[in-house]
Amino acid sequence: MGQLQLWLAVLAVLSGIVAQEDLYRKVFVFRKDPSNAYVVLRAKLEQPLQNFTVCLRSYTDLTRPYSLFSYATKAQDNEILLLKPKPGEYRLYVGGKFVTFRVPEGGRDWEHVCASWESATGIAEFWLNGKPWPRKGLQRGYTVGVEAAVLLGQEQDAFGGGFDVYNSFSGELADVYLWDVGLSPDKMRAAYQSLRLPPAVLAWKSLSYEVKGDVVVKPRLREVLGP
Ligand SMILES: *[C@@H]1O[C@H](CO)[C@@H](O)[C@H](O)[C@H]1NC(C)=O
Ligand SMILES: [Ca+2]
């Protein structure tokens, strides 16, 4: 980190704009439904992505569409998007194109998902509660842009905005990570089990974030490992 960036980070923290926090055993509670609230995440990204993995854990009783992770660039609002359009279905977007992964309808429990993508092969992986789903093909040769607005709780239709409250998230979110690599199967399982993980560009244990609106950080009520 350069001296200027360091000072900007210090100033931001002192002025209470950006929190950096170890959120281990904590959750974001998105209290309202529908909601205009969201959380902005600050990622340490230096170059365009040829590979990535995103993981998170969610707990909700929503049955309408909702966004879980929205990474927009100025050129493409759905640069990386993890969306649940309806119960029993997840969608992963890369560069505006998507693949669908059909899953059992939630047992009203925490769901842990990891999605990864590799430009060289265009292979998208989807893991639910530590288990891989059949891999799919998406955007071979594409490069994910690096100047991004990364948000939880809303789906962006413009850089940092363009929200539809009926795609908002309501419920609890935790264990959000983004890596600039495809994780190995062992690490995918480690993410599900909340074990030790490789350094990430976004890490739940040292998350730089900014809450916008009605989102509260609370301790977990119980262990969140699903079935
Ligand atoms: C992306 O992943 C592929 C396959 O694992 C690897 O060969 C390549 O070097 C990676 N690219 C970058 C920029 O990390
Ligand atoms: Ca969008």
Automatic annotation (TrEMBL):
CC terms in the record's Gene Ontology section: extracellular space
Matching entries from Pfam families are given as: Pentaxin
Gene3D superfamilies found in the cross-reference section: 2.60.120.200
Provide the protein name: Pentraxin family member
Q: Which residues form the Pentraxin (PTX) domain?
A: 24-223
Give the cofactor note: Binds 2 calcium ions per subunit.
The compartments listed are: Secreted
Against CDD domains, the record matches this protein to: PTX (cd00152)
Family per UniProt?
A: Belongs to the pentraxin family.
The residues the entry assigns to the signal sequence are: 1-19
Write out the GO MF terms: complement component C1q complex binding; metal ion binding
Task: Give the gene that encodes this protein.
Answer: LOC115346645
Self-association or partners: how does it assemble? Homopentamer. Pentaxin (or pentraxin) have a discoid arrangement of 5 non-covalently bound subunits.
Organism per entry: Aquila chrysaetos chrysaetos
